[in-house]
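>> received
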Amino acid sequence: MSEESIVIIGAGHAGVQAAVRLTELGWPGRIVLVEEQDGPTYERPPLSKEYLKAGASDEIPALRKEHYFDEKRIERIKGSGVVGLDREARNVTLSDGGQVQYSKLIIATGSQARPLTVPGSDLPGIHLLKTRADAEALRTAMQPGSEVVIIGAGYIGLEVAAAAAALGCATTVLEFQDRVMSRVTSDVVSRHFEELHQEHDTRFVFGTAVTEVRGDGRVQEVVTADGATYAADVVVAGIGVVPRQELAEAAGITVKDGIVVDLDSRTSDPSVYAVGDVTRLIDEENGINRRLESIQSALAQAINAANHIMGQAPARHEVPWFWTVQHGVRLQTAGLRSPDDDVVVRGTPESGHFSVLYLRGGRLAAIDTIAALGDFTAGKKLVASGAHIDTDLAADPANKLTTAVRELVDETR
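>> returned
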């Protein structure tokens, strides 16, 4: 067994966590981490948050210090992508032609920013934001007084908008839907953040589709379906991501908008695992069929893959959670809402501190908290517990969320 190798493709949060967990469990063979990018590993959230701010440090926090990998005997192949996977021979082919044998393979290739495809999408001045190089280029481009047009009002688009406005850029956000963050939150939260951005002079245009980007040698304006034009020195496309599943797909591993995995992160090939944003978790017994873009989910998947390889029990199921910070206001979400959920607002948006509860069958399915850390911690536990909630008690911020559950339980004893 000591001659066996585990190859991990990708050195983002999921890939590095898988390597860390394997060392913790005492994997006796080689661990090889293949990294497409050169340089140290790094955290992704600061790229669209802290790093774009005026006066921000050039340093991006590392996932692990460089010496950690040497100390743990994790071999790293930097600056080389994987271009081929031979499942029968159990080897991967690197972009430089080299090959690496594996006993077990963990694919952690993540996702890539969805590019614009309208005419003019190849003009200089159009940016995506996914990697350290993307963030460096965007930070250089956004200068005080420049016209910044952001396409898409999701997390990335709004975090960039906040940074651009703070830098003194004239900031416009174009969004196909009728409100911000419509895919991930409710109307009350959307309107709160829309007003927040407007207070910082960001202009929103909803219900509009971009049809063209124009410019003489570089971007100058964005055209929408109604014929309107928006002057632009910088364009940022924040229109989602797509899983980097091509390697697995070409090798005949099952993919369905993501590499299909089970709760142990196993793919359709028993020797191949997949973790992180590149995956789609399907668990028919529990009615799960989803692809999440969540660091916490990626870390849990990585731990479960390593546990399964080492014959350990799976880690406890974690409630998915997400967060964003815009103009200093923190939105934290636990659980997964559905548009059909009953919505209960706890507190008032005018106060700047409130929460929104999403109830399904009387149970808390998800919660959004705005500058309300106490509610987030309690709400996350309640989502995991599946307990029924007394909505009247829960809606009153004078009560702790846990009180709403305890009193209901007491009444039914």
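>> The first helix runs from residue 13 to 24.
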